[in-house]
Amino acid sequence: MNRAGFLLARTLRLEAPLARLSVPQAELMAELAGRRVALVGNARSLAERDEGAEIDRADIVIRINRAPMPASRTHGTRTDWLALATSIGGADLDRVRPRRLLWMSHKRKRLSWRVASSPGFYLQPLAEWQSLKDALGAPPTTGLMMIELLASSELAELRLHGFDFFASLSLTGSRRADQVPHDFATEARFVKALIARDGRVVQVGAPRGG
What we know:
The protein has 210 residues and is α/β, with parallel strands linked by helices. It has one domain: Glycosyl transferase family 29 (sialyltransferase cstii, chain A, Alpha-Beta Complex). It has helices spanning 3-11, 15-19, 25-32, 52-57, 72-75, 90-96, 113-116, 126-136, 142-151, 184-197; strands at 36-40, 60-64, 81-84, 100-103, 122-123, 157-161, 201-203. A 7-stranded parallel β-sheet has the order 5-4-3-2-1-6-7, with helices on one face. The longest helix has 14 residues, at 184-197.
């Protein structure tokens, strides 16, 4: 598909042509199998901790949306995958330099040709977004969509950095929890239950007993 065809499909909300731009989910699952994965969220609290070296030691480092990295000491330097649910400018893509881009949002109109035509591009199926939305009773965050996707693979370990479910707000904006369409309390319970039943998943920096 060329750029003109992509723009037409996006404008007319033609899912099938857009889906053909994506690698199959099985390709992601194969790459994840047996690997140690660091998923880096955008909580402001991460900027107060020294987790950068640990993040960079992971086999695969995945960041979210505009992927703020204020210091290597706190956030590390590597980005293997970048999971998106918002538009991103060329300057941010050039800064982060991911080798794979994933579009997780149901809002296809925000998907750019640069992202969709990138090597290894992955498009999250609408049905999977809807299923998670139904389970939560609210639109899922990019982070939770990635946690669910990663946990469904045969990875060896998933370590969550920078996830406090908006307790410290986000490094990428100033909005409060009541100003965004997500249910962070429900997402926190979802992840806590996942950690309880899946010993591969670890929330780094979580309070004891929390």
